[in-house]
Design goal:
heterodimer; A: about 375 residues; mainly alpha; 2 strands; B: about 650 residues; alpha+beta; Penicillin-binding protein 2a (Domain 2); Beta-lactamase; 7-stranded mixed sheet; 24 helices; globular; disordered N terminus; disordered C terminus
């Protein structure tokens, strides 16, 4: 019995290895990004090889998952979608009931490892919206949009309650992008945007004090030198002092002298900017733009609605990471815990992202098949 | 779904998607260009400025922890103080070889195992440039020795700080609690900005429940550092906001008297002002010195505290649960009146044993042969079990638990301390949740004398008696009366509105019960007769002696050694004064007292004496009793010690 299973596993692995149905341009883009990430991490972590090794290990794990998932046809994923969505949302409820974590309850302790269920939603959220819209008439009707709004609101409000505003934004954006790609009318988007803008004073009322402080410190960073204001000031000094060509690899004084907090995780982009300058920043952003573009290309090639919406939403969601993290580092957006994808040190986000790209690879590989 | 499917215009949809994806991509490119533009602005337009700032980046903020709020009693006597002390701190990034440095340092300033363990844990959680405390509370000798050798230890420094001191030691440890050093677990939970630079946090008691008020807000100073990160000078200082001071409703004099009255016997007492819920005294005996915990208690000291069979760390007043015994009879009697089941003049014949109709099991009275025909006032005065057996049975368990639940039994009182026990209120719900057996009528009967599935904490009982004394208006007990921003700032009183609507509908009912409780003290057959001797104002009270283990009628043996029985008894006494306009209500418990009235009664009396003395011996607006109290000549009759169990034995329920 075990040998049979083992043989089957071997065959599966060989098939994955020999005929990986992956999209080469996207794979090359990701590989380049991972490489830039490791190089930057080596410098930001003051040459700490344990740090770099750990991150490389996560890339290997994420890459393996990517190859594995690329073999699963989108139709299978589609059938699993409601269960995956319900399961991950249930885990969020569990976090509310018995979560633990620093200041915010985000983690579930599984005994062996701690686990952040909100990460799962970054993938299951667009899957669910795509699943819901898949059999429906597009552009979506008012009724369908209301249903999607509920599907988005449940997990997002649970995550925002933790409170983890950064992840809540990412999850909501992934769901909304699917709706946008489904062809929601422009005037409706405009109306929605106006309504959201109108809600801001109300939302302000419901924010936690520390979340309000984050917006306020953005306007006047000097007012909070022990907390986020310090982050913002030091990050801008790092970016600005990099100039056009940068100070060179391993020459970020801001990071070396510990002026820049969290310089391996959320603020690694500041280290990158200081060392490689505007030229480096432009190149990195171009690489990100290429990956997003390729994702949308794969989405356009897909044959069924589910695959199209899912691939598009994942690609556009990837952009949100870059924009929010870059905006934070450059002092345009408040300090929220959004990593720079595949560059920031940290396990869960790297693995989740690569799993998401696995789904894209699968969609690409099965584009010829009819629904 | 199939039908809808067929309508789906796949080609149109595909085109729509294509348009959307392209539009989306254009928008994304625009956003990313905006981002690059922002970077260009910082890196090109403002490059020169930031280069200068980066080169001159020699200024770091350093947190200035706030001074913790002080704690005073109601008259402004200082109960928790901050005193200056010195500690060793280490900046990790300035130490080249940490183990070697610690070994060398240990020869100059002794470093305990506890110090080193705590230091290593904190080290793992702090940034390399942040100063980490190594050893607290240096002696002068240690400071001198380190000062001479300071040049040998770069990155190590003696730093002044404020340390908590409790001048009254063990007197308030169960109320105020203590602060302890922040450890690695705390760092996971605390707001890192608010607690930057703070080394201690409230661990128990008011120090914990009022942590947010006492802590304050940190300030900071901007310090200039050289290339190695060493402080050169302070550029500017933004002072911290100290935590608010607390004014407790406790009175040191009452607290002292209460503690002294126990004379080391395990027990607890709580005194509450019925007019507003303010706690005037709260002791749990034995106690411990909270100062031991402030700098981390040594293993040896902790071992002594935990191995003591009397459990000095255990807060009996807040967490200890005991059957209330006969102390709750007045409240049950009040329920009978309020439900209209009894009129004050209704009588019951006590024959010595009470039987539920049709059942063989008997429920005993305290006095052999019974107390004869008694009305409600007499039943309270003499603590006649049969009266309350029958009343409870007539009331039925549902009305019974509904009524007593209103006095706060079975749930926390809401006192401003954490970790309060709920106790147990006899009810069908409680039994259903804890047993598979149904509720039996016999259980209602024994609930009538405060036994059975019934457990209360001393603070619960004090709260219930205060609620009664305050004519049925309940207030959650409060220890903190007011807060204060700074030493001379005006006090800001904390409001404490009644926690519910008045419980007593008919004022005449209150008068009847009040009379019964006065008779306990002044009546010739009262179980607390003689207790008020020489007290110039009316006292109303009730004794209670509850058993730790229930006994069946047949097992009762009058010949058993009194001391043996006493060791199994919880002796209660509750009282309030002045009985006509109550201003203080007290509940006291001896864990292994012999009998409520004779052993715990005097404790209550001493608390009342201290309270009266604190008022200068005169309660304004109250009439003094005639000094020649009628009780004087009769005192010998009731006060006969060791005479077992005439009337002093209330409630020791058989």
């Amino acid at each position: 019995m075990i040998t049979v299973l083992y043989m089957r596993w071997r065959r599966f692995v060989r098939r994955v290895m020999t005929r990986p149905r992956i999209d080469m341009p996207l794979a090359i883009g990701l590989l380049a990004l991972a490489l830039v990430g490791l190089v930057t991490l080596y410098s930001a972590g003051n040459g700490n090889l344990v740090l770099v090794g750990g991150q490389a290990g996560r890339f290997v794990l994420g890459g393996a998952l990517l190859l594995l998932i690329s073999r699963i046809p989108p139709s299978v994923l589609r059938n699993w979608t409601p269960w995956l969505y319900a399961g991950s949302t249930a885990l969020l409820v569990l976090v509310v009931l018995l979560g633990e974590g620093r200041g915010a309850d985000r983690w579930l302790n599984l005994g062996v490892m701690r686990f952040q269920p909100s990460e799962l939603l970054k993938l299951t959220m667009p899957m669910m919206v795509a699943w819901y819209l898949h059999p429906r008439q597009l552009p979506p009707s008012w009724k369908d949009m209301a249903a999607v709004a509920v599907l988005i609101a449940i997990p997002v409000s649970l995550i925002a309650k933790q409170p983890d505003l950064g992840t809540a934004v990412l999850v909501a954006a992934a769901g909304l992008f699917a709706l946008f790609l489904a062809g929601m009318a422009w005037w409706r988007i405009g109306a929605l945007a106006a309504a959201v803008a109108g809600m801001i004073p109300l939302a302000w009322h419901f924010l936690h004090q520390y979340q309000r402080d984050r917006w306020l410190t953005l306007l006047n960073p000097e007012s909070d030198p022990l907390g986020n204001g310090w982050h913002i000031i030091q990050s801008q000094i790092a970016v600005g002092s990099g100039g056009i060509f940068g100070k060179g690899w391993q020459h970020s004084t801001q990071s070396r002298l510990d002026f820049l907090p969290e310089h391996t995780t959320d603020f690694i982009f500041a280290v990158f900017s200081e060392e490689f300058g505007l030229v480096g920043v432009a190149a990195l952003i171009a690489l990100y733009a290429f990956i997003v573009g390729r994702c949308l290309w794969i989405a356009m090639e897909a044959r069924d609605t589910y695959s199209r919406l899912l691939a598009g939403a994942i690609g556009m969601g990837f952009f949100v990471y870059v924009f929010v993290n870059g905006g934070m580092v450059a002092g345009m957006l408040p300090v929220v815990g959004v990593p720079l994808p595949l560059i920031s040190y940290g396990g869960t986000s790297a693995v989740t992202l690569l799993v998401g790209f696995g789904v894209l690879m699968s969609i690409h590989a099965h584009r010829k098949m009819h629904d | 779904m199939k039908i809808r499917r067929s309508i789906k215009d796949n080609r149109g949809e595909s085109a729509l998607f294509r348009r959307r994806a392209l539009t989306g991509f254009v928008l994304i490119l625009l956003s990313l260009s905006l981002l690059v533009g922002r970077f260009a602005f910082l890196q090109v337009m403002r490059h020169a400025e930031f280069v200068t700032r980066s080169q001159n980046n020699r200024v770091k903020p350093r947190a200035l922890p706030p001074a913790r709020g002080l704690i005073y009693d109601r008259n402004g006597v200082l109960l928790a103080d901050n005193v200056p002390a010195f500690r060793l701190e280490v900046v990790p990034e300035q130490v080249e070889d940490m183990p070697a440095m610690l070994a060398r340092l240990g020869k100059i300033v002794p470093l305990g195992r506890d110090d080193l363990d705590a230091f290593r844990k904190l080290l793992a959680h702090s940034q390399r440039f942040e100063s980490v405390p190594l050893k607290m509370h240096l002696t002068e000798d240690e400071i001198d020795r380190f000062a001479v050798n300071r040049w040998r230890f770069p990155g190590v420094d003696v730093v002044p700080y404020l340390i908590r001191r409790y001048p009254f030691g063990k007197l308030f440890s169960h109320v105020i609690g203590y602060v302890g050093r922040i450890d690695a677990d705390d760092l996971q939970k605390l707001d890192p900005v608010r607690y930057k630079g703070t080394s201690h946090i409230g661990r128990t008691g008011l120090e914990r429940s009022y942590e947010d008020v006492l802590h304050g807000t940190p300030g900071y100073e901007l310090i200039e550092v050289n290339a190695d990160g060493r402080t050169q000078r302070v550029l500017e200082t933004h002072a911290p906001t100290p935590g608010r001071n607390l004014y407790l409703s406790l009175d040191v004099r009452l607290q002292k008297a209460a503690e002294a009255a126990f004379d080391g016997r395990p027990g607890a007492a709580v005194a509450i002002d019925p007019r507003n819920g303010q706690v005037l005294a709260m002791v749990s005996v034995p106690s411990f010195d909270p100062n031991l915990f402030v700098n981390g208690i040594s293993q040896a000291d902790y071992g002594v505290l935990t191995s003591d069979p009397d459990k000095p760390l255990y807060n009996r007043a807040l967490r200890g649960v005991y059957p209330p015994g006969s102390t709750v009879k007045p409240l049950i009697g009040l329920g009978g009146l309020e439900y209209g089941i009894r009129r004050p003049e209704d009588t019951v014949v006590s024959t010595g044993v009470f039987y539920i109709p049709g059942q063989a099991r008997g429920y005993r009275d305290d006095v052999r042969g019974g107390s004869g025909r008694v009305d409600l006032v007499q039943a309270i005065e003499q603590s006649v079990n049969t009266y309350f057996y029958k009343l409870a049975l007539d009331m039925g368990i549902d009305r019974f638990s509904a009524w007593l639940g209103k006095f706060g039994f079975g749930r926390p009182t809401g006192v401003d301390l954490l970790g309060e026990s709920s106790g147990v209120l006899p009810s069908r719900e409680w039994k259903a949740a804890h047993s598979r057996q149904p509720w039996y009528p016999g259980e209602t009967v024994i609930a009538g004398i405060g036994q059975g599935y019934w457990a209360v904490t001393p603070i619960q009982l004090a709260h219930a008696i205060a609620t009664f004394a305050g004519h049925g208006i309940a207030y959650a007990p409060r220890l903190v009366m007011a807060t204060q921003a700074a030493m001379d700032a005006p006090l800001k009183p904390l409001s404490n509105p009644p926690s519910g609507p008045p419980l007593i509908r008919n004022p005449a009912d209150w008068d009847v019960i009040n009379k019964g409780m006065q008779m306990v003290i002044y009546g010739a057959k009262g179980t607390g007769y003689g207790l008020a001797k020489g007290f110039p104002y009316l006292i109303a009270g009730k004794s209670g002696t509850a058993e730790r283990f229930s006994r069946t009628t047949s097992a009762y043996n009058n010949d058993k050694n009194a001391a043996y029985l006493a060791s199994r008894h919880r002796a209660w006494f509750v009282a309030y004064a002045p009985a006509d306009h109550p201003r203080i209500a007290v509940a006291a418990l001896l864990e292994s007292g012999a009998w409520g009235a004779s052993d715990t009664g005097p404790i209550v009396r001493k608390i009342l004496d201290a309270w009266l003395a604190a008022h200068g011996g005169v309660i304004r607006g109250e009439e003094r009793l005639p000094s020649s109290s009628a009780s004087a000549p009769d005192a010998a009759k009731a006060g006969e010690p060791g005479k077992f169990p005439v009337s002093g034995s209330t409630g020791a329920t058989p």
